[in-house]
Amino acid sequence: MLSLLVAGSLVAALPASAAKSKGSPERVTICHKPGTPAQKTLSLPSPAVGAHLAHGDALGPCGGGDVPCTEPETSPVVPPDTGEPVEEEAWVSEAVATLDGASQTAFNPAGAPVSFTLSCPTLAMAEDTVAVYLNGRPIPFSALTLASDRVTLTTGLDKGRNEIALAATDVYGYAIHANYVLWAGAEAMPVTVLDETGTPAAGATVAIRLADDSGVTSTLTTDAAGQGMFANLPARSFNLVATASGNRTLSRRL
């Protein structure tokens, strides 16, 4: 039997039990636009793979090396409005924007700068070609720092859920888009794990998982006093699982 104390208060004392949680979707490697100058290897969540395969992408990494920074042969042209569907993918830049300084699966510090890093140094660096949105509101251009391969939000994330989106243009006139959901906070949560005799359980593993999104988690190992500290937590509900030697497990929702 284990006891788990949070912020100095006894939360639970339960017999050993098995704890299961749903992880993040499996990621699949594909070759985007194989056989073209724009081909590149991507790692995507499995639910998104079907649409890419339907557009001609292939499973597995691209062969022969990616060529992600070639100059397009033509400039993007907006076709006349015929009422027919338009293949917008043809207007998308070869530059891929990825997160730097934050994680979709971790508790991020509120207010810390977050960047989009581009796979190609081709960003058109102007107020009318770069926009960042946080939870639907446009971020002032003065709060952004730009480089040819990077866009940084200097004011950082809000506390709680953050949907951060980049809408930009490369120097060739092609669109760069990225959208991520991140969780951030500024709260700390001390925890203490005790065994059935009240003795501190040193070396116990404690995992905290966001109730709103089970893919957002953090793990610590208790010290000699059976204690540890979680940081950067938002004001939300959590699921905690403590595991000590002998497969003794305690789970609780806070």
Briefly say what this structure is.
The chain is mostly beta strands.
Radius of gyration: 23 Å
How many domains? The number is: 2
Strand-residue proportion: 35-45%
User: What is the CA–CA distance across the termini?
Assistant: 19 Å
CATH fold-level label of the largest domain: Immunoglobulin-like
Number of strands: 20
The total of helices stands at 1
In which order are the strands of the major sheet placed? 7-14-13-9-10
Helix content: under 10%
Quaternary structure of the protein: single chain
The best one-word shape is elongated
CATH structural architecture of the largest domain: Sandwich
Biggest sheet descriptor: 5 strands, mixed
Could you report the average pLDDT, rounded to the nearest whole number? Answer: 82
CATH class of the largest domain: Mainly Beta
Unreliable runs: 8-23
Order of helical and strand elements:
EEEEHEEEEEEEEEEEEEEEE
The helix/strand class is: mainly beta
Name of the CATH homologous superfamily of the largest domain:
Immunoglobulins
Tags for this model:
single chain, 254 residues, mainly beta, Immunoglobulin-like, 5-stranded mixed beta sheet, 4-stranded antiparallel beta sheet, 1 helix, 20 strands, 44% strand
Structure explained in plain terms:
With 254 residues, the protein is an all-beta fold. It has two domains: 2-24 and 186-253, Immunoglobulin-like (Sandwich); 27-64 and 93-104 and 111-185, Sandwich (Immunoglobulin-like). The chain contains one helix and 20 strands. It has one helix spanning 49-54, and strands at residues 2-6, 9-14, 27-32, 40-45, 58-59, 97-100, 107-109, 114-118, 130-134, 137-138, 144-147, 150-153, 160-169, 175-185, 187-195, 205-210, 217-221, 227-233, 238-244, 248-253. A five-stranded mixed β-sheet has the order 7-14-13-9-10, with no helix packed on it. A four-stranded antiparallel β-sheet has the order 2-1-15-18, with no helix packed on it. Strands 6-8-12-11 form a four-stranded antiparallel β-sheet, with no helix packed on it. It is elongated and about 75 Å long.
